[in-house]
Each structure stands twice: as C-alpha cells, then as structure tokens.
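Here is one chain, start to finish.
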Amino acid sequence: MNSKQLKYFVTVTEEGTVSSAAKKLFISQPPISQQIKLLEDELGTKLFIRTPRQMILTTAGKLLYNRAKSIISMTNMAKDEVTSFVRDQRNTIKIGIISSIIGSEILQKIASFATDREDINFEFYESDTYAVIDNLHKEHINFGIVRSPFPMSKFKTMKLQNSRLIALGHKNIFNNKMLKLGNDTLETENRTYYLNDKISLNELSKYPLIIYRRWENLILDTFKKYSMDYIIKCRTDSASTALFLARRGAGLALLPSTIVSSNMENIIVMDIVENPWPSDVYIIYDDLEVLSRECIDFFNYMVSKYEKNI
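Its structure:
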C-alpha cells in the first residue's frame, strides 16, 4: 500500500468511475485499474462492487476510504508544514549573541543589514560565549558572536572588534583612595569620566572588584603571577549585572571596553596599564556552503564591514 494507490482509490470512490477519476487525475485508465487491483490483492479483499454505471464501495472499501482520507490529509499537512518550515528557515538568520555586545557598533551594523534586507528575518539568542558555541555545535543557530578567550574549535572565526578588560566604577569609589588622577578634573555634572591616566594592577588590587565569573581564573591568575593580593567584592555570571553593581558603587567592575557607552552617569572608566586581559569579539560559523543564500549575504556584509580585522 502506497500513497499513489490511496490517492487513486479515493479519487475513484469520489468520482464514481475509473474513467472519471482518470480525467480528474489527467492520466489514462489502465494505471488506475492496475493500482486498485494491486491494492485489493494486498488487502485480500474486494474494495468495490463493479457495476456498468458505477464503482460502489464494499464494507471493507468504506473502512479504507475513511482511513485513506485521513492519511492523505495528514500527508498533505506534513508536506505543507515542512515546505513552510524550509521556506521560513531559508529566509531566517539565527544568531547567538553575548550580552556585552548589546548596544555596540556590531549590533548596530546587524540592525542596518536587517533594515536594508526586508526579505530576511532574524532570530537572536542571547547567552554567554560557551552557550553560543554549544548552540552552534547543535546547529540551533547559523552564526555566533562570542568573546575571547574561548576554545578555537572546528568552527571558522573572523575577528570583529579588538577589545580588552577595563576597570570602571562610580566616581565616589575613588574618594580617599590612592589613585592619582593626574591633570584630569572630576566635574560635578553627570557624565562618563574617561581619564588619561591608567590604573595599574597594583593600584587595582587595592579596590573591591566586581568580576564576571567567566574571566575569574584569568584575572586571579594574573594577580597571583605578580604576587599581589586582591579583593573580590562580587562575582556574577552577567556582564550587565557587573555593570549595574559598579554603577551603584559596589566596587570596580572589570568588563570589556566595548561595553562602555555614553550614558554612564558619574562613571570613571580606566585602562589597565599592563593591559593583561584581551577580550576580542569574533563571529564564528560552520561551513558556509551548507548555509542559505541569505546567510551568505549576511556574512559577506559583515566581512565588508570588518575585513580589516581578518
């Protein structure tokens, strides 16, 4: 029993004769009669009472007709669903992103591409670097935007942005501390303070630190390397949480330089003298040949914007 036989059987039932069914199906009569005969032989029973004027269903035929209608309906539904899914997948680009690029130049460029290409839809999945990599492994996404360090696995990579960890905190945390601000003046108006002077690891070790747990081992290993004590005030799994705590004066957050924006009121942002913790942003992907034309267009667009970093 196959779908062709069921289709012929249902059509004959509804049209009443083989000749009428043949006209509806745009085929000759013999193939229909042959398939009906094969179906009856397989089932071991007659499906029709054949009269000069009409094909009349037997009791077994009536049972098969009801089942065949359901099977054909479900088959068509499955075909439509899969076709729709493939069409939607072709027009949809799925990107895993890390929270620290939200509001960044990278996301702005992706938004520009999305605006220009009205024929393409986007799905974003926000998580940490390792979850993004895992989703790419499982083929849940087409591209991942991650931050180093991360294991350079089988995926291809392209650097989008040079970055490093910087220290930032509310201006009040620097009161009565040993940090020298050089010739810069702390104004009273609300704004982000970028100081020409940098902060050294030694100076940094005197402040309560807020660290993003992903970089914890890297940061602490550096302090240990130079035999420096350190004060860990808060640990968090979220860059946005670390930033929130720093803005409330809980300590100095060590975060990627790309997270800094112009609306951080009363925040002091400082480079670290030794620049020990690079944290560059990459786009990672699998074989482009298996991706849709839309995905390739998106990748080529990103290459055109960041080819200097390749």
